[in-house]
Amino acid sequence: MNQNTSSAVMQQRSEPDDSLDDFPTQPWATRALCFHVLAGYRLRDKTCWEPACNRGHMVDPLAESFGQVWASDVHNYGRGAQGDFLIPGMIPWDDGRGVDWIVTNPPFRLAEQFIARALDVATVGVAMIVRTSFLEGVGRYENLFSKNPPSIVAQFSERVPMVKGRLTATGSTATSYCWLVWLNGVTTTKLVWIPPCRKKLERADDYAAYREVTA
């Protein structure tokens, strides 16, 4: 039986309530945020917290642009501190002083909570990579976007393959992703497109620990 890869089917990403929502972000997609969306924001002078760091696939490219990057996750993947981002004070550096930026791929079922918490903690900005369909929904509009609209919606012109449980250089997807960015003090929303950049920003060693076996 052939897989149904229609957009209507592939946009659905339903995870159990206790799921870790393990969908690693390809490093080039994080570099695209830094190089094409946040290029003018002096990131080298800023601190950043990645609170759903998984195995560090987003942490490493963030460290290429930010002055200091902290990493944590509710699950121990062997990278970063372990603790629940949604519970204040569980992470060593969550001491009330805040950090400049929070950047992450939030668990889908907790994305709104992650955004709300991040907006309370970050002193400069918040960036979340989400499915483009996250922008839809009356409830999400009423609870989030009508009150705290993103400053920038940065839509990928290329697809960003995210595969459950592993980082892959060869995967494909029918799901569209974008970066949502909130900047402190900015209340209007700007729509931008991230140009095709995977070939330029992708590096062979991004996948060094996840070599796929081919016939």
Automatic annotation (TrEMBL):
Family matches, as InterPro entries: SAM-dependent_MTases_sf
Listed Polar residues bias regions: 1-13
Domain of life: Bacteria
Residue numbers spanned by region Disordered: 1-22
Full protein name: Methyltransferase
Native species: Sinorhizobium medicae (strain WSM419)
